[in-house]
Amino acid sequence: MKTPGPNLLRKIIPPIALGLILSRASLIHAQIANVHVDVTPEHVVNSIDPDVATGAWMDVLSKRQVDNLSKPDVIQGVKNLGWGSITMRNNSELRLAAWHWNENGSWSDAANKSGYFTGSAELAEPIKYGYSYSLPHRDFMTSGDDPLIAGTQSYWKSNPYLTSHFTGESDALHPQWVVVDMGKYRAVDAIHIQWVNPYAVTYAIQYWIGDDNALDWDMGPNGVWKNFPNGTITNGTGGDVHLKLADEPVKARFVRILMTQSSNTPDTHGASDIRNCVGYALQTISVGTMDTNNNYSIVYPANGIEPAPGKIKRDNGGAFPGSAEDTAGSFCASSIDPWHESGNLITGGEEEYNGMDNFFTSGLTMNHPALVPVTVIYGTPEDAANEVAYIYKRGYPIVGVEIGEECDGKHTMPEDYAALYCQWADAIHKLVPQAKLGGPIFEGVDKDITLWANDAGETSWMTRFVNYLKSHGHLNDLAFMSFEHYPFLINGASPPCEWDTLYLEPGIMKHVLQMWRDDGVPKSVPLIISESGITAGSGKKGYMGVTGNAIWECDAFGTFFANGGAAFYRPAINNGEGGRRNTNSVPGGGTFGTPQYTPFTSAHLINFEWLQHDAGMNQIFPASTDLIDAAARTVVTAYAVHRPDNNWSLMLINHDLNAAHPVHLDISDANHKQYVFGGKIAVIQYCNATNENNNVVMSLDSFKDLTLPAGSITIIRGKLQ
């Protein structure tokens, strides 16, 4: 943590010369930014240990990348960044796949090497790789990444862990569903369902009334599901079913099959495992019309071809041949059975993951506690419990365990995720009582996650999740709440002016943090950003340039900690050689990235200049500015920290790309006692004009002339008198 970044340019400038340099900026006619720092000891807003509070995340890797992780230049590159903790992302859940964190384990159907796999908690040879396995029972499930299928799928089946046998409550409290998005409004009055075992005995066919885009796929609250007049079935017998739903066609875009009671009949894998017998399964769905002679005509898919297993693509398109109208729409389901077999191993790409032992022993973690994942949406509680037990047996330090990843992106209902969370918490704590668990690891959102209302009229995902844990006596198992943060360019939606988005970040961050509290997350539960980036899903590199990205990152960290955040994992630490993430945040070039990539500059400012690592708790104090532009935007932001070395460090960010701004510091306490920086003061500036760090040590007499260059980050550090 003590190693400075290689690009840092340090200068010792005499006070007179420095005054001349700084005064040049004052020739620009710009408003003064008044900065107030409240140093009242009782007013500290947060206390953080950067060794666990600032970190980086590691995503899916290829085998070659895993093999390169322990190279000296790779480890040195991570050291140069200065991040404390590292978190391993569970990319398999994003790809609708099962994750084998340990290939040494057992299948529930050992004879056929199939079923539900449980990795062994026993210590053996160190684990270097992890692997993903496609889910044969996902069928038409289209949310998430493009299918990575080994072979042909057989059917869709819901998750058995959401049934009464495992939840201990009625299946009606965890209804499973399939939604058909027909792409546009179509007149329909019939449906074709080919049920297989286990089938639904009680179910309803419904259509959505409300906002046309409310389910595309935000699952928004702006509407309701309504049963077709003849859409309620209470005595289903499975098989190949054509149902006349209404006397007259109903115009709808979204049609849902809501299943509330199962036949509990075994699927093709037999009755020896209860998981094969519970839940719901079906083979084919189409929506259409039926004439008076009961002749059925398919309306969707529009070309009259019903979906074949494993042939549907993701949400933004079907897999049917023909016109764009034919292929519009998609299918989505509430859950997936995690059953799979040895032949479903995904190969041919970034299919490997950094193995558990390799992750901790390669040197990447710097012996700091790491944040680790377990699968939940496509896993089993026994497997998750064994993983955590294995980590503790090895003695690897961890700060917590994330339960699943991006359940909102998989359209998992809050009550369903909560039911799984309770089972997983019980299983893990049975083996490792002291393990700290958290989630739900939301996708990068800047507004509350909402969905269609429950019986109580509640539409907030997080509120319903917290309420479920509370009512089931498991709220104490939520040791932290984690989410992802990608504020801009989500799904390729570019803002009108890229640089102008920099003004938005502090407001977005404050809103998101307050949002989770308003949703019911107790104040005692720490908030963690376990994955982040300025953009997501755009594929656009550079975005607003090196300086713009650096400003965003410093603002994000400063605002997060100033508003009570506990830990922030920012850049992707992946070995770029031969992989898709070649613009990694590690300097030095070679096999690990490029020195120009922005997080290097901001990482150094955050970890080596603003905060103090390897020393314990840093205290965050209130800081504010008053400079507002004509568009009512805050031009200069300020973040203050009192470090363990007794230095005060003030990070100032000038968002104005066109003008420099002089600053006037007001450092005082609640008794109006004034303080000033005394003795030698370190001033570090990174600005748009030079794209370089300048570390300047100057005397107090020269400090009064300090001006923030246009588009810049400035850190002032020293002791107060």
Describe the structure.
The protein is 19% helix and 31% strand. It has three domains: 9-45 and 622-720, Sandwich (Immunoglobulin-like); 49-90 and 363-614, Glycosidases (TIM Barrel, Alpha-Beta Barrel), CATH 3.20.20.80; 156-337, Jelly Rolls (Sandwich). Strands 1-35-34-37-31-30-28-3 form an eight-stranded mixed β-sheet. It is globular. The chain has 721 residues and is an alpha+beta fold. α13 (545-562) crosses α14 (599-610). Residues 1-28, 144-153, 303-328, 538-542, 575-598, 690-695 and 697-701 have low confidence and may be disordered. β23 (398-403), α10 and β24 form a beta-alpha-beta unit. It starts with 8 loop residues before the first strand and ends with a strand.
TL;DR of this structure?
The protein is of the alpha+beta class and 721 residues long.
Amino-to-carboxy terminus distance: 29 Å
Question: How many strands, which pairing sense, and closed or not: the largest β-sheet?
Answer: 8 strands, mixed
Number of beta-strand segments: 37
> Which superfamily, in CATH terms, is the homologous superfamily of the largest domain?
Glycosidases
